[in-house]
TrEMBL record:
<dbReference type="GO" id="GO:0045303">
    <property type="term" value="F:diaminobutyrate-2-oxoglutarate transaminase activity"/>
</dbReference>
<dbReference type="InterPro" id="IPR012773">
    <property type="entry name" value="Ectoine_EctB"/>
</dbReference>
<dbReference type="GO" id="GO:0047307">
    <property type="term" value="F:diaminobutyrate-pyruvate transaminase activity"/>
</dbReference>
<dbReference type="InterPro" id="IPR004637">
    <property type="entry name" value="Dat"/>
</dbReference>
<keyword id="KW-0808">Transferase</keyword>
<comment type="similarity">
    <text>Belongs to the class-III pyridoxal-phosphate-dependent aminotransferase family.</text>
</comment>
<keyword id="KW-0663">Pyridoxal phosphate</keyword>
<dbReference type="InterPro" id="IPR015422">
    <property type="entry name" value="PyrdxlP-dep_Trfase_small"/>
</dbReference>
<dbReference type="InterPro" id="IPR015421">
    <property type="entry name" value="PyrdxlP-dep_Trfase_major"/>
</dbReference>
<dbReference type="GO" id="GO:0030170">
    <property type="term" value="F:pyridoxal phosphate binding"/>
</dbReference>
<dbReference type="GO" id="GO:0019491">
    <property type="term" value="P:ectoine biosynthetic process"/>
</dbReference>
<protein>
    <recommendedName>
        <fullName>Diaminobutyrate--2-oxoglutarate transaminase</fullName>
        <ecNumber>2.6.1.76</ecNumber>
    </recommendedName>
</protein>
<dbReference type="InterPro" id="IPR015424">
    <property type="entry name" value="PyrdxlP-dep_Trfase"/>
</dbReference>
<dbReference type="InterPro" id="IPR005814">
    <property type="entry name" value="Aminotrans_3"/>
</dbReference>
<dbReference type="Pfam" id="PF00202">
    <property type="entry name" value="Aminotran_3"/>
</dbReference>
<comment type="pathway">
    <text>Amine and polyamine biosynthesis; ectoine biosynthesis; L-ectoine from L-aspartate 4-semialdehyde: step 1/3.</text>
</comment>
<dbReference type="InterPro" id="IPR049704">
    <property type="entry name" value="Aminotrans_3_PPA_site"/>
</dbReference>
Length: 429
């Protein structure tokens, strides 16, 4: 079925308006009722297709209903296998741990214990923050400007967005924000402020338990840290005996090329947070990876009812076996990312007076506009043409794309054509 090139018709959404909370967000931008999804296409209940450059906010790196993963899931359920297991031993959990260790950790010379903290990325972040404080006996954590780490209180405390922080309803404490890479447009040496505070006994900054960082800030505006900046941060943490936590919830599982987004920088974090695409199929699953010597939890000290969703283990295992036995997907993602960058650079050049900036790494890409209204207009025009994408950044000024890593070249080019036409419409209207 072809992608829609005409404006969507009104959908029957009355029940959502009547009963669902006003907190919903994505459905406001895409006011249609979706029913089916295959690969990089979603279909509404009228059968109209939409090319998906959103991919479940990065939870569907292998596309919707990936055939290899769907077959495993259907077979798993049909055989009456364990579904809910808390932290009990199951064959599905064992298969995942063995495959993850042999195919992901060992080839990268990484030695981590695996914590299953709960079903989502915020659970992974909360576990890392709690464990860092337990290990070090310190309370404060360093985070970065424009960071996003989740919507629970601990994760919100290290998140930068004022709207999201304001929803907490209580003071968010024990976290100190520092400038992310290029926050000052490279007018100052890297970490000059943080280093000074750490070494000045009069600065008032308590020695932190940890630093938490995204190698590419997705919700913060597709801000990609330089490899040398990440290496400098890792060195600073080592010298001051501060634990380094990399939040790879959205940028892990191949989004920037390598399985982990920090691979390019050659660093080894003390802890890593994974979720979104780790299950491969969109099922809830999260991991917190910790150095073995940091694994000092007491039994049950961090737990949750849904930290053992076994069908997610099954699809996660199959995703690794299907896509991570060689570097084919990594190379494909890097090439497709370069393809997007080239097209985005052409748009920047075409509208040179508009101040557009192309941003990102791998298949996490964005175009930054002068304001949020323009980025919104571009996304709306794209939706009218049958393409789904969202905005990000502190003022929503970045048009953000996260297509499935398995997207075909034809689909990618078609989506980029829609983006070019939508930018033209928004800037020349």
């Amino acid at each position: 079925m072809s992608i829609s090139t005409t404006a969507p018709t009104s959908a029957d959404i009355g029940i959502f308006d009547a009963l669902e909370s006003q907190v919903r967000s994505y459905s406001r931008s895409w006011p249609v009722v979706f029913d089916r999804a295959v690969g990089s296409t979603l279909y509404d209940e009228d059968g109209r297709g939409y090319l998906d450059f959103f991919a479940g906010a990065g939870a569907l790196n292998y596309g919707h209903n990936n055939p290899a993963l769907k077959e495993v899931l259907i077979r798993y359920l049909a055989d009456d296998r364990i579904i809910h297991s808390l932290d009990m031993f199951t064959t599905a959990r064992r298969d995942f741990l063995q495959t993850f260790s042999e195919s992901i950790l060992a080839p990268r010379d990484l030695d981590y214990r695996v914590v299953f903290p709960g079903p989502g990325g915020a659970n992974a972040v909360e576990a890392a923050l709690k464990l860092a404080r337990k290990v070090t006996g310190r309370e404060s954590v360093i985070n970065f400007t424009n960071a996003f780490h989740g919507m629970t209180l601990g994760a919100l405390s290290v998140t930068g967005n004022s709207l999201k922080r304001g929803g907490a309803g209580v003071p968010l404490v024990h976290a100190t924000p520092m400038p992310y890479d290029d926050y000052f447009n490279q007018d100052y040496p890297d970490f000059f402020y943080l280093e000074r505070l750490l070494t000045d006994s009069g600065s008032g900054l308590n020695l932190p338990a940890a630093v938490i960082v995204e190698s590419v800030q997705g919700e913060g505006g597709i801000n990609a840290a330089r490899a040398e900046w990440l290496r400098g941060l890792a060195d600073l943490c080592r010298r001051h005996e501060i634990l380094l936590i990399v939040d790879d919830v959205q940028m892990g599982c191949g989004r920037t090329g390598g399985f982990f987004s920090f691979e390019e920088a050659g660093i080894v974090p003390d802890m890593v947070c994974l979720s979104k695409s780790i299950s491969g199929s969109g099922l809830p699953m999260a991991l917190t990876l910790v150095r073995p010597d940091l694994d000092i939890w007491e039994p049950g000290e961090h737990n949750g009812t849904f930290r053992g969703i076994a069908p997610a283990f099954a699809t996660a295992t199959e995703a690794i076996r299907t896509y991570w036995q060689d570097d084919a997907l990594e190379r494909s993602t890097i090439l497709k990312g370069a393809r997007v960058e080239s097209r985005f650079n052409a748009i920047v050049s075409e509208f040179g007076d508009a101040g557009i900036v192309s941003k990102g790494r791998g298949l996490a890409r964005g175009l930054q506009f002068a304001d949020g209204a323009t980025a919104d207009a571009v996304c709306h025009a794209a939706f009218e043409r049958g393409l789904l994408m969202e905005t990000s950044g502190p003022s929503g000024e970045v048009m953000k794309i996260l297509p499935a890593l398995t997207i075909t070249d034809e689909e990618l080019d078609r989506g980029l054509d829609i983006i070019a036409a939508s930018v033209d419409e928004a800037l020349t209207a």
